[in-house]
Amino acid sequence: MGKKRRGRDRLMTCVSCGRAVPRDKAVDYERRSSFTTDFRDKENVTAFSSNVEYYCISCAKHRKIFEKKKKQAERRRERREGRF
Fold first, then answer.
1. Does 19 reside within a domain?
2. Best-predicted range by mean pLDDT among 15-19, 33-37, 75-79?
3. Chain centre distance of CA 18
4. Model pTM score
5. Structural domains of the chain, count
6. For FRET with 67, which of 22, 31, 58, 73 sits at 20 to 30 Å CA-CA?
7. Under a CB-based contact definition with an 8 Å cutoff, are residues 59 and 16 in contact?
8. Rg (Cα) of the chain, in Å, rounded?
């Protein structure tokens, strides 16, 4: 997770606490949500949206975002190994 370019990186604000964190150090978390019109006929409309939220390291650990990403990576590895 090192820097790929030199110089000052853009600051992102943490969604939880409001702390200013450099972008390469911030943890990005994609939140997906769906909205539906609760009609029971043909005109039922479903819309999906996703937005990226940035957390500082301490808030990400507190919300256990790191652990979720580790478990997701392990599942992906298991799926890849099972294919071959």
1. yes
2. 15-19
3. 17
4. 0.63
5. 1
6. 22
7. yes
8. 18
